[in-house]
Amino acid sequence: MANEKIPYKVYLEENEMPKAWYNLRADMKKKPAPFLNPGTHEPMKAEELAPVFCDELIKQELDNDTAYFEIPDEIKEFYKMYRPSPLVRAYCLEKKLGTPAKIYYKFEGNNTSGSHKLNSAIAQAYYAKKQGLKGVTTETGAGQWGTALSMACAYLGLDCKVFMVKVSYEQKPFRREVMRTYGASVTPSPSETTEIGKKILAEHPGTNGSLGCAISEAVEVAVSTPGYRYVLGSVLNQVLLHQSVIGLEAKAAFDKIGVKPDMIIGCAGGGSNLGGLIAPFMGEKLRGENDYEFIAVEPASCPSFTRGVYAYDFADTGMVCPLAKMYTLGSDFIPSPNHAGGLRYHGMSPILSELYDQGLMKATTATQTEVFEAAETFARCEGILPAPESSHAIKVAIDEALKCKETGEEKTILFGLTGTGYFDLYAYQNFNDGKMDDYIPTDEELAKYREKLPKID
Ligand SMILES: *Cc1c(COP(=O)(O)O)cnc(C)c1O
């Protein structure tokens, strides 16, 4: 049987590793909508973005036509320390489920940051360094992005200022210490160190903070400090470009064993891991060369794709960032405080939003108790303690494999296992103690946030 010949893990040799990132936009007939200036509502020009972002990254951000961007040697060298990431055949999980489906996952948790975010962190830090900058600022929610960026900055000798959502800062002190170990300064957000932070604190004393608010603070510091720029860990086109390394490696590994996945599943927060994982496969679909089914999985408590609207919205609470057209719940939306599964951003990558709008991709939701049940099943079979974010994809991969059990179909399923859950043990504790509950926002609640969308004609 062909099955038996496929090893547990498929690795790539050095000469089989991707040499260029793939820009999915080049193959999209209808391109994602451009960023708009929040004041004039005109498309943002490179020079308007220059005070906020690094020059080379702006070029990548605005380029809808160049299909491949060569990966600079220094980044390839860095990637070698933790890449290729393994493509794993989940034999144990298949057996446990009794499914004829063949399940594979691409595991991105094999580095200290514990997630795929390092793939873009090193790229963004590299271009900042090349531009001669002193440092970068950013926000972090759960902490994976801040950790990844501090690792990249430490490697390249850049200063790194992280605004960490206050509730995470308090609940995840060890994440904070990892970042500090790599030399980053970490400030709980909202803080008194920025004008926007002071304003938010005055309006909402005792607030737990949010990603949108931390973004505003990080941008303010970047534009007001000479030699600094702002970097973002998801949502942006450039981040999906860098994350294409995940999909390119997965595709090369599948080609090596002569297997084609039928279905590709990923969790979606801002959309970067999913956008990266599906990139080369979606490229084939767009060019009419092959067909695949793509599924985005989001938390039922933060359902941007499935219950949001496709509209221009603010990327941050302080409304300092460009307007982005995306599936959004409204920039004031914050998931309920009992939500422990990450993927909390109110919006979604403009690239994925456009693909979803064109019907090229599906989306579904999972509640957090279902997600942790799937995490537990997976951990017990496959050994890896998954991040709650990743477990959204696990949940739907399991569901799809069980459907195959009903129908007898031998589908090949690929999902993105974006990271590990060692810093999420409070959430696991709640789950193990039976104290986790599910919160699903009502239509009325969502409508309230939607009212504040900017009016664009
Ligand atoms: C940040 C993160 C995500 C979600 O971000 P995307 O940009 O949607 O990929 C998923 N999994 C892990 C482990 C993360 O750290």
Keywords:
19 helices; 2 domains; Rossmann fold; four-stranded parallel β-sheet; alpha/beta; 16% strand
Describe this structure in words.
It is a single chain. The strands form four sheets. Strands 1-4-5-15-10-11-14 form a seven-stranded mixed beta sheet, with helices on both faces. It folds into two domains: 8-23 and 83-113 and 236-432, Rossmann fold (3-Layer(aba) Sandwich); 118-230, 3-Layer(aba) Sandwich (Rossmann fold). The mean pLDDT is 95. α7 (144-156) runs parallel beside α9 (173-181). With 457 residues, it is an alpha/beta fold. The chain is built from 19 helices and 15 strands. 42% of the residues lie in helices and 16% in strands. It has helices spanning 2-5, 46-49, 55-62, 73-80, 91-97, 118-130, 144-156, 166-171, 173-181, 195-203, 211-224, 237-257, 272-286, 304-307, 350-357, 368-382, 388-407, 425-432, 443-450; strands at 9-10, 20-22, 68-70, 87-89, 102-107, 135-140, 159-165, 185-189, 228-230, 263-267, 293-299, 309-314, 323-328, 362-366, 412-417. The structure holds pyridoxal-5'-phosphate (PLP). Residues 115, 117, 144, 234, 267-273, 343, 387, 389-390, 418-419 line the site of pyridoxal-5'-phosphate.
